[in-house]
Write a structure and sequence with these properties.
The structure is a single chain. By secondary structure, this protein is mainly α. The protein has a single domain, classed as Glycosyltransferase. Helix content is 46%, strand content 5%. It is built from 19 helices and seven strands. The chain has helices at 8-15, 34-38, 43-59, 103-120, 128-147, 160-164, 189-205, 211-230, 235-239, 254-268, 271-280, 299-313, 319-332, 357-377, 390-399, 417-420, 437-440, 471-474, 478-491; strands at residues 2-5, 101-102, 152-157, 179-183, 381-383, 386-388, 463-466. The strands form three sheets. It has a three-stranded antiparallel β-sheet. The chain has a two-stranded antiparallel sheet with strand order 1-7. The radius of gyration is 21 Å and the shape is globular. The two termini are 38 Å apart.
């Protein structure tokens, strides 16, 4: 097991998995001067990283792989998913290093991929179609999950306890592919409203390129949101140990209801949803300040999204969300009167030891998106007596995602089943549930490089263990990568 002490600049490039770090750097190197920043990597380097970040999603695909699949160590998997309930749930994404399909993080991943395309698609150039394909792989699955049975949303495929007792390729899965759902009698407003958000955001992505598909997504989003709002309850309560402790809805479901309504409003401009937002934003603290944006808590993202409507049109009643957005942004800026974030000695945002980089990538997307909204309205972020312009927000985002270089020195033992085991093309014979652990416990590097993956990241002292058994630091996840797609797209178009 290798323990590395890394500055975040190096850590972030390393966690793109195809980028390099250098042990010659120290945490102090993180605080680079403006001259050093200007001599950093070119837009072409960020474009290459963007391509790799999208390749990661191809490595996470479940279902029948298309002819243009570029990640060649993967093959078809989960082709009977849904059959346990006599429905078709083939497709979608495995959320992380396991072979499960969890609806809440998958929907959140799809929403943020869509948001990345909506805000920064114009900067993606030759990667735009790959980004749309990544969105569509998620939205296609969510459509199936939402329309298979009336007043029902399928939210998970695979028994987590059975899956986690095995270490095998998705192509070899011989664990039970149990199917779980929320319904009118067993509600799940959080996962349903997030699914509605994902479908609505995706509808915006495809509005010009595929209008009929876009309309189907939007109409389904509206129906799923109505279901979420009518049958209220947390899916953690309905599904209990099946989703907990894996993806418990700790924040409840009010934040997702507001998030879902906000995305449908963006897609429709229907004043009914604006009224819903203005009325329900005050219910049960859904519009309270919160400083952690993730697959569980959507409040900061909702406020940033709604601030766009206020900044662009001055809609009465939405100025509150500009204030809340400022509070969130100010909490991240060192030196701000409202500063309350924690950073590692090297300068990396630190929220917790489990998959910390999910918060880093998500905050980077919010910083860049809010900066874009401020630019459009010639506005600033108000932090008590101080103000910060959009350039300050972009600089902070870049510090969290600045790349040091490309090379061959990257994590070798990522906590990921398909990556760690030999490909079915290299070793066609079936590798059973227990037999795969020889690869899990091996000191050798993973058999397949999962290009573009961002893993959980270092601890609060910038230490990173390149250890397959340390899933908190070494496991990648779709919801870590999704917001970074937008950040990379932005930086690929700037110098």
């Amino acid at each position: 097991m290798a323990t590395l002490h890394l500055c975040p600049l190096i850590m972030f490039s390393m966690l793109l998995y195809s980028l390099a770090f250098s042990s010659a750097f120290t945490p102090q190197d993180y605080y680079f001067s403006s001259a050093q920043e200007k001599s950093g990597f070119s837009p072409q380097d960020y474009s290459s990283a963007l391509e790799k970040s999208l390749l990661f999603f191809e490595g996470q695909r479940s279902g029948k792989l298309p002819p243009n699949q570029r990640v060649k160590w993967r093959a078809d998997s989960g082709l009977s998913d849904g059959s346990a309930a006599n429905v078709n749930l083939v497709g979608g994404y495995y959320d992380a290093g396991d072979n499960l399909k969890f609806g809440l993080p998958m929907a959140f991943t799809t929403t943020l991929l869509a948001w990345s395309v909506i805000e920064f698609g114009s900067s993606m150039q030759n990667q735009l179609e790959n980004a749309r394909a990544a969105v569509r792989w998620g939205s296609d699955y969510l459509l199936k999950a939402a329309t298979a049975t009336p007043d029902t949303l399928y939210v998970q495929v695979g028994n987590p306890y059975h899956d986690h007792s095995c270490w095998e390729r998705p192509e070899d899965m011989d664990t039970s592919r149990d199917v779980y759902k929320v319904s009118s009698s067993n509600p799940g407003s959080d996962v349903a409203a997030e699914t509605a958000a994902a479908l609505a955001a995706s509808s915006i992505v495809f509005k010009q390129s595929d209008p009929s598909y876009s309309e189907k997504l939007l109409q389904t989003a509206i129906k799923v949101f109505q279901f979420a709002d009518k049958y209220r309850g947390s899916y953690s309560g309905s599904l209990s140990s099946v989703v907990c402790p894996f993806y418990c809805s700790y924040s409840g479901f009010q934040d997702e209801l507001l998030w879902g309504a906000s995305w449908i409003y963006q897609a429709t401009q229907n004043p009914t949803y604006l009224s819903y937002i203005q009325y329900n934003g005050h219910v049960e603290g859904a519009d309270d300040d919160d400083y952690s944006f993730s697959w569980d808590d959507k409040r900061p993202g909702t406020k940033i999204l709604l601030s766009k409507n206020f900044l662009e049109t001055g809609i009465e009643g939405l100025e509150l969300y500009k204030t809340h957005s400022d509070n969130y942004i100010c909490s991240l800026i060192p030196g701000s009167p409202n500063f309350q974030a924690q950073y590692t000695p090297g300068g990396l945002l630190y929220k917790g030891q489990g998959s910390n980089l999910q918060y880093v990538t998500a905050s980077s997307l919010l910083l860049l998106t809010y900066a874009k909204y401020l630019d459009t309205s010639h506005g600033v972020a108000h932090c008590g007596s101080a103000t910060f312009a959009a350039d300050k927000l972009r600089a902070l985002a870049k510090q969290q995602s600045y790349m040091v270089g490309f090379g061959n020195n990257y994590p070798q033992k990522v906590h990921h089943r398909g990556s760690s085991l030999p490909s079915v093309y290299a070793k066609p014979g079936h590798i059973s549930c227990g037999d795969g652990f020889q690869y899990f416990y091996s000191s050798s590097p993973n058999q397949n490089i999962h290009v573009g993956a961002i893993v959980g990241g270092p601890d609060n002292n910038d230490n990173f263990n390149d250890d397959r058994n340390n899933y908190q630091q070494s496991e990648p996840a779709t919801y870590i990568n999704a917001p970074f797609v937008g950040a990379l797209a932005y930086f690929s178009s700037t110098t």
